[in-house]
Write a structure and sequence with these properties.
The protein is an alpha/beta fold. About 25% of the residues lie in helices and about 30% in strands. β3, α5 and β4 form a beta-alpha-beta unit. α1 (about 5-20) crosses α2 (about 25-30) and α1 runs antiparallel to α4 (about 55-65). It is globular, with a radius of gyration of 22 Å. The N and C termini lie far apart (about 45 Å).
Length: about 325
Amino acid sequence: MTRGPWVEALEVQAVLAEAHARPGHPVRRYAEYFDHDVLKVGIRETRPGGRVWSLADFLAEGLATADPYWVSADMLDVVDAAAPSMPGEVLHVEDLPSPAGFAVLERSVIRRDVRGRRISFRAVSWWAVASDGYGSGVLYALWTDAEEPEDDINADLGTSRRALGRFQLMHAGVMPFDTDPATIPLQEREQGEGPPLLPPEQVEAQAVESWRWHLTFWRMMGQRIAHTTEARPDRATARRLARTTLAAPEFVQVVTLRQYRDKQPPVDGEGEGVRWSRRWIVGGHWRNQWYASLGRHRAIWIAPFVKGPADKDLVVAPRVYRWTR
């Protein structure tokens, strides 16, 4: 048993699961603030006794049963680079690395909100659920690190928000399965005060960007480019977690960027007598790969690699990510 940075995933998950499960807890009450935006698209479920679940109910159960992940910064760098060129594919249930998950990121992901302000998230949770509005889909939540200095909103946190702890709910939404993202109506979010809303076309572009990032994030976690190992917590952490409402996972799935050796197949026309004067990057790109088991094509990311002699200078040219079939 060891203690590494990935232990943070277990500890944060346990804190958030307990807080959302306790009626009247400030963290749970804050989640209820998001109910209107999320539940109006159809994520409702009636449990025994006729009570309709709130977003806080979903988060409490989802966090308590989610598989914990810790994702390295270099893996996030690849996701950020590949997401803008991700094809506009639909989300399928098999794209999720697990039905329910909670992933703490080594660094924050910075975005712009509908008012142009910098916002950030440092954890992503998801849970496959049934939706009255769209059918089945994934309920996801983004969690911001209140100590992130690049976040404009976190920089102005009031006393009440700071009392919610370091990891706070930043956004929650629904991504339906098997649905063209272009047909999903945007949710208007005009809560709170701030600068004027951005033009509709920019808001639309942000929604597309968000969809591509999440789909890329989940799909890459299941591809060869991601190197996933199981890390077990130290005894002290394991004992502490056993006293929480968390379903006591035995390990965290640590997701890092797979390190490729520079052993690429020779290019046609290359002979042993060819002497290269430089090294260069063969850029990453998406490939439309046929999966017989699924009966359809599916975009996979082909990782970039460095070609050329190790003792030569690396020449980096501007790259354009391409979509190949």
